[in-house]
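MODEL INPUT / OUTPUT PAIR
PAIR INDEX: 1
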Amino acid sequence: MKKTPLNAGFTLFEVIMALMILGLLSGAVYSITSAALESSQATITEQAGCRRVEAFARVMRDAFLNLPRDARVFLKMGKSSAGAPVQEMVFAETSGTFGVASVAGGSLILSDRPRSDGTRTFSILRVPANMQGNDYDRMMAEGPWVPILPGVEKVAWSFFRQGKWQETWADGAGRPEAVRLSFDYRDLPGTTLDFQFWVPPLAQPQAPANQQPPPNPNPVPSPNANK
């Protein structure tokens, strides 16, 4: 049986080299793992952002498609609690908009409220009927806004009628034929999202099918009536 020499083992240089190789391998594994985690997190964030945008667009499309006959839509400028100007899309005399069964003669307002990080959040507010003056201003600035889509920037509205788009739509202007909404979204950087929502026209009232037309008060005599 061969005996192991007493001085057999690794030298200090070999130990140092082994530790260096182990450190390099650990660093490479950490870099690959970190990159994979960051890529996975970015993919998850982007997918979640796409789902939020799709849900928001679906709610907006339903809001415009299901406007009641008496409903009014118009755009006005308001102010946040800090005094920053905000655009407010007003849905007046509506029902079922944004999941609210009825506003009891009031309005639902969609606004891009500013955030502390410089972005904005699409939020809705239910405003009771006949609220005016200071109470109205206070509610608009400090009211219980319900956030729908955070992280938006560069919000722009436009309205289509008679073959052209216009950037303003005042109360009393009637119904536009279509509404366009564009904005940048934080979770989808580098892309401006552009949505167009069709607004159905008001149907003209029709007489029942079994209703006969009223008699002509001045009938035209037949050419052969006096023969």
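PAIR INDEX: 2
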Amino acid sequence: MQQWKSSSSSGLAIRQVRRQAESALAKLRKDVRALDRELAQLRRGEVLLAQLAGSKLQKRAATGRARKSARGKVPSGRIDWKDVLAQLPKQFKAANVRQVRGLAAKRPSEIFAGITRWIDAGSVKRKARGQYEKRASRA
């Protein structure tokens, strides 16, 4: 009988904690919806002010990408990977690719994605781990 009472009281405690968690979650969701509405209102105001000032808002300003590039962490513009390949020596490493102008701030995954595209296209051959060689152009 003693064991039944303790499990009953622990079950009651679990239910109370669960109710408190559900209540906190409901309040949090309500707060998030209110903040979303406020943010949407602020964005509409931003668009109106931009129109009054005569400037056009770019889509990426809303996503936050403009702030990153303003700090200089994300280079702007697309990379012409064929041009990058042309600037590399016959045998090169990923570090050589990074030395090409405009690629210093690129993430390693982007550098290796470019190298992989060159390999898939047949422009580059992998010699050893981390070492690559340009193939003769097929014109």
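PAIR 2 NOTE: The domain at 75-134 is CATH 1.10.10.10 (Arc Repressor Mutant, subunit A).
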